[in-house]
Amino acid sequence: MSNSAFERVIVPPMDEYNQKLIENLHPNDRNNPEPADCYDLVVIGAGAAGLVTSAGAAGLGVGLKVALIEKHLMGGDCTNVGCIPSKSLIRSARVVGEMWNAKEYGIHIPQQVEVDFPAVMERMRKLRSQISYVDSVDRFTNIGMDVFLGTASFTGSDTIEVAGKILKFKKAVIATGARATHPDIPGIKEAKYLTNETVFSLTQLPRRLAIIGGGPIGCELAQAFNRFGSEVTILHRGSHILNKEDSDAAEIVQKVFQREKINLVLSSQIERVEGTSEGKKIYYTSNGKQDFIIVDEILVGAGRTPNVEGLNLETVGVEYDSKGVKVNDFLQTTNPKIFAAGDICLSQKFTHMADATARIVIQNALFTPFGLGRKKLSDLVVPWVTFTDPEIAHVGMYESEAREKGFEVNTIKIDYEDVDRAITDGETLGFVKVHLKQGTDKILGATIVSPHAGETISEVTTAIVNGIGMNKLSSVIHPYPTQAEGIKKAADAYKRTKLTDGTRKLLGFLNKFS
Fold this sequence. Notes:
Blueprint: H1 16-25, E1 39-44, H2 48-58, E2 66-70, H3 76-81, H4 83-100, H5 117-132, H6 137-143, E3 146-149, E4 152-156, E5 159-162, E6 165-174, E7 178-180, H7 188-191, E8 208-212, H8 216-228, E9 231-235, H9 247-259, E10 263-265, E11 268-275, E12 280-286, E13 289-295, E14 297-300, E15 304-306, E16 320-321, E17 324-325, E18 338-340, H10 351-367, E19 383-386, E20 391-396, H11 399-404, E21 409-415, H12 420-425, E22 431-437, E23 443-450, H13 453-465, H14 470-474, H15 485-497, H16 501-511
Helix pairs in contact: 1-5, 2-10, 4-5, 4-8
C-alpha cells in the first residue's frame, strides 16, 4: 500500500515529541497487512473502547482472528486530545495554585509566580509521547491482531473496506467515538475557535480566553488557563457552573473560581461573534441584558457529536441518530452481529465507560454464542470525576434521582473541616455525602468534593458494586491520618443512628460503674 492510501497525520507543533507520537500511533510510512480470509472480529476505531475490545479478543489465547481499524491516531481522544494532555496541564496549573496559597503554609514566595507556558505545553507533549507506546500500532500488532490504518466503511452484510482492502467478518464492533460539537453561533466559524482537538497544540498563552460551556471540560480548562495567566471568561447557559452536579458541590467550585478571578457569565445566550482588529468580539445576553466581551481565543467546551459519517451504516441495517449508534442493553446494534462500545453509543462519555462497555462487548459477542451469560450495560455502577481544584467525584444516584425512582433517602454528610488530615493539609473545603436507602445501610450514591475526590470515590464504588453497606464500611480500619477517613466518619455517623434509646440508657448506666 502506498502512503497516499490513507491520510497522512500531522500533529502541530512537529517537534521530537509529536514526531514520536505519530511514529507510535499512525506511522505514515507503514503498509497495511494483507487481510485474512475472514475475521472473527473486526473493530472500527482505536480509542479506548476499540483498543480494549481488540486486545481482549486477541489476547484470549484461542486463536481468534481480530482486525483493528483506525483512520487517525491510535489511542483516540483520551491519549491525544483528552485525558492525558488535559491532566498534564491541570497538574502544572495545580502547582501554580499551591504557590498562590504558599503563605498559608508558612512558605513565602519571593516574587510573583512566573509561568513558562511553552514549557508547560512541551512537558505535556513529552508525557503524551511517553505514554503513547501503550496504544501503538506495534504493540497491538504484537498482541496478535491485524492493524489497518485508514477510513472504514461497510460495503456488505459481512464486509468492510479500508484503504482499498476488503475485510470479511463474523462479528464487528463500532467504536468510532465522538468529537467536539461545532456550535451554531453566527460568525464563530469565520472568527475561528478552539476545541479539545486543537487547544493542546497551542504554544503561546492567550492573553484573553473565552470558554463556551461551564461543564466539566470547560471548567477544568478554564481554571488551568486562568492559573497560567490568561484572563478567562466562562459563558454558560445555566444559572451556575457544573449544573449536572448537586448545587452544594458546584457552589464550592464556583466560589473558588470567583476567588481566583475567573469571570463567570451565567444564564447567558451567545448572539454572534465578530472578528475585529481588537480581537474576537462575542455578543451575548445574560439575565436579559445585552453585552459583549473581546478576547484573543475562544474555546468551545460544550457538546459531543458521534462519529458516524462515512461508515455506511445503512448498508448493514445499523440504526443511529444525533446521539449516536442505537444499542440494546447488551450493546448490540439493530444488526445482531454488530456491536458498539464507547462514546459512539453512550450518553456517559468517559474513558472508563469505554473500557467497561468494551468488556461487555467481548463477553456478549464472543462468549454468549457458547451458552455463557450475557452482561448488561444497565448493571454498571459508574463513577466520574470533574478534575477542577477541588475535584468533584460522584457515583450512583443523586438524592433527587433516587427520590424520583421511589426511594426514601437518608443522607449523611461529613465536612472535610472535621477530618484531621484535611485540616493539616489545609484542604477543608469540601465534603463526603452519602445517600442511603431509608431504614437500611444500602448505599444508593455518593458525592465527594476535595482535591483528592477522584482518588477517594473508588472505595464507595467498590462498596456499591459488592453490596457492602455502611455498617461494614464502619468496621474497615482506615489508616490515620488520611483524607479517606471522611468515608469512615460517614459510616460511623450511620452506625450511631442505629443506637436505640434503650441501648443508650444501658450504656449510660454501665458507665456509672466503670
